[in-house]
Amino acid sequence: MSEADAPLSGTVRIAAIQTVSGPDVEANLAAAEGLIARAAADGARLVALPEYFPLMSTDEMAKVRARESEGSGPIQDFLSAAARRHRVWLVGGTLPLVAEADNKVRNSTLVFDDRGERRARYDKIHLFGFQRGAERYDESVTIEPGQTVSTFDSPVGRTGLSVCYDLRFPELFRAMGVVNLIILPAAFTYTTGRAHWEVLLRARAIENQCYVMAPAQGGEHPGGRVTWGHTMIVDPWGEVMNVLETGPGVVTADVDFERLASLRDSLPALRHRCLG
User: Is the CB of residue 161 less than 8 Å from the CB of residue 150?
Assistant: First the structure.
């Protein structure tokens, strides 16, 4: 029986990492390594990195040049080795993987277990687009959307994967079925994050009666982009358990299986669903 298949009781510590990534992949991986080590030293068994943790650049084609084939490449090698070295399950934020189109990438989350073996992949489905004045983003220019919902068994039980803009589409999370934890790596803009980040994360936790862990980019990046940060972990009642507003760091909390079961028993909303 693997660690992820063992009966669930007591608590399991999870950790969400916040970074302020730039255009230098090696520097970003070194920063991530130090934060993963901190999370592991604090007892975390499941650690998640933010969206774009290995690369954020004002040159949108940089991610295309850095893309890796599935199963091969320095970013994937780093994730596997870090998971094995620190004996944690590691959710690799997102990294650029080869897409069907030559000039695009899949914005992909990869999960490695504590032996460094890959356990899951999710390609971001919903691509962010926003324009207000001079502020403009269009991920569809360089990113090819995924099409498949992804869940996997982790040390906290059934776990669902999502990325950033996915947060605004509750039907994705319903399609996961019953999960104990949703992981949402993100790089929310300052504008949209200030308005909607916390309320949407709390809503997803409440309506799915599960923990939500959202590792984020948080701060001013080389080139001037500012991300909202506020990496947080939310419990199934919608309470924010821990948050880091800005700057690199680690946010930890304990998944409590007895609390999870009690909340679902007292308010059996998941069993009361009539549609979908």
Answer: yes
Please state the φ and ψ torsions of residue 96, each to the nearest 5 degrees.
-85, 120
Q: Pick the catalytic residue: 68, 104, 164, 210?
A: 164
Q: How far, in Å, CA of 263 to CA of 257, rounded?
A: 10
164 is catalytic: yes
> Is 124 designated active site?
yes
The whole model's pTM is what?
Answer: 0.95
104 is catalytic: no
- Which domains, and CATH codes, for the chain? 13-266 (3.60.110.10)
Q: Which of 68, 124, 144, 210 is catalytic?
A: 124
Q: How far apart are CA 66 and CA 56, in angstroms?
A: 11
Tokens 């504008």 correspond to 191
* Active-site option among 51, 68, 139, 144: 51
Each residue of 127-175: pLDDT tens digit?
Answer: 988 888 877 778 989 999 999 999 999 999 999 999 999 999 999 999 9
Q: Which two tokens stand for residue 217?
A: 């980019």
- Residue 32, Ramachandran bin (φ over 0: left; ψ between -120 and 50: alpha; else beta): alpha
